[in-house]
Design brief:
Length: 360
């Protein structure tokens, strides 16, 4: 397992001090301590698992949203309606992680009662890495599925207008002796945040990730930030992104597509939507039996023949788990620019530079 593409300015930082600094920054931005801790945990979780596009890279943007972007740091999620196994929650226009955590916890509670439950969330904002939610379900013996809309960064195949978001989805299933199998992906060939990481490092993008503003392929990260993200799987990726976006928004009445804002002017606060589907395995069969069978699927993958003996065969979520094991011991490897931007953000909030010293 290799680290993220590295540069000379990259530095390592432990998860614990990074979390403490993140909590302090969000508290200084007006958030309640509990909400600040949830938000920080979501971001550091992503960085620990090597998903730096959804990690602390986003702190400056998040602080801008909390201070000047119309997001309410004191917003409280609330239940709009519940009908049996279906519910609608409003996130109170706080950071998306706050309403999404509330909705996921509610969906799990409902699924313990009804077997299957779906909570649709509106009044939300960007909610971070989706496996942060689905792994909670898997850890409680349930299957979790979460989808979200996203700012439009893609065009219909052959088009030039940004009208389709990458609209990610995550699914996590519990095992017995094996860790959960967890899928977390968006329907673009890459994430916008990942292009930002490559731009920070002044590295060329892999071929097939992005188009320029005219819909022509590019490997220049700066040009790509002004252009379009290529869909994963061509027309299939666009179609799947549309469907996940519709599930994430139409059930609750949240904004879809261009109603969210755009990548130039930024998002419109409180317009995001997500859905949280939880399946209580015990409502169908014994959890242990399900877990044993899930383990067999993993073991079948691991035991199959390889083209290259040096290349391991991995199941969804396994590479991220390897990053997590490494980063918990060695520290999280992050671009120096990311850490410097976090320090500048903290200082702009009037924080004591000593609190930020662990950033290096």
């Amino acid at each position: 397992m290799a680290d993220y593409p590295t540069a000379e300015t990259d530095r390592r930082i432990g998860a614990e001090p990074l979390t403490a600094i993140s909590v302090a920054i969000f508290k200084a931005s007006g958030m309640h301590k509990r909400d600040a801790a949830l938000l920080a945990d979501s971001l550091v979780h992503a960085d620990l698992r090597g998903v730096h596009s959804h990690g602390v890279l986003r702190i400056p943007d998040y602080v801008h949203k909390l201070k000047d972007g119309g997001v309410n740091p004191a917003g409280k999620p609330f239940v709009v309606s519940r009908n049996g196994a279906a519910a609608v929650v409003d996130g109170g226009n706080n950071m998306g992680q706050i309403g999404a955590h509330f909705a996921m916890e509610m969906a799990m509670d409902m699924a313990r009662e009804t077997g299957v439950a779906l909570v649709a969330l509106r009044g939300s904002n960007h909610c971070g890495a989706l496996d942060w939610y689905t792994l909670r379900a898997a850890g409680n013996g349930m299957i979790g599925m979460v989808g979200s809309n996203a700012l439009p960064t893609m065009a219909p195949l052959g088009g030039r207008d940004k009208i389709v978001g990458m609209n990610p989805i995550s699914i996590a299933m519990p095992g017995h002796n094996e860790p959960p199998v967890v899928l977390d992906l968006a329907f673009g060939a890459t994430a916008h945040g990942k292009i930002r990481v490559y731009h920070q490092k002044d590295l060329p993008l892999p071929t097939g990730w992005a188009y320029d503003a005219n819909g022509e392929p590019t490997t220049d990260a700066g040009i790509a930030l002004e252009g379009l993200i290529q869909p994963a799987g061509g027309h299939k990726g666009i179609a799947l992104a549309m469907m996940v976006g519709m599930l994430s928004t139409l059930l609750s009445g949240a904004g879809y597509g261009t109603e969210l804002g755009n990548m130039v002017d930024g998002p419109i606060a409180g317009q995001d939507g997500q859905f949280f589907l939880v399946i209580n395995v015990a409502a169908f069969r014994a959890l242990a039996d399900f877990g044993v069978d899930a383990d067999k699927v993993v073991q079948q993958i691991h035991g199959s023949s390889r083209r290259d003996i040096a290349q391991p065969l991995l199941v969804p979520g396994e590479m991220e788990r390897q990053f997590e094991a490494k980063y918990k011991t060695a520290g999280i490897l992050l671009p120096g620019e990311t850490l410097d931007d976090i320090r500048k953000t903290g200082i702009s909030l009037g924080m004591d530079p000593e609190i930020l010293a662990a950033l290096g």
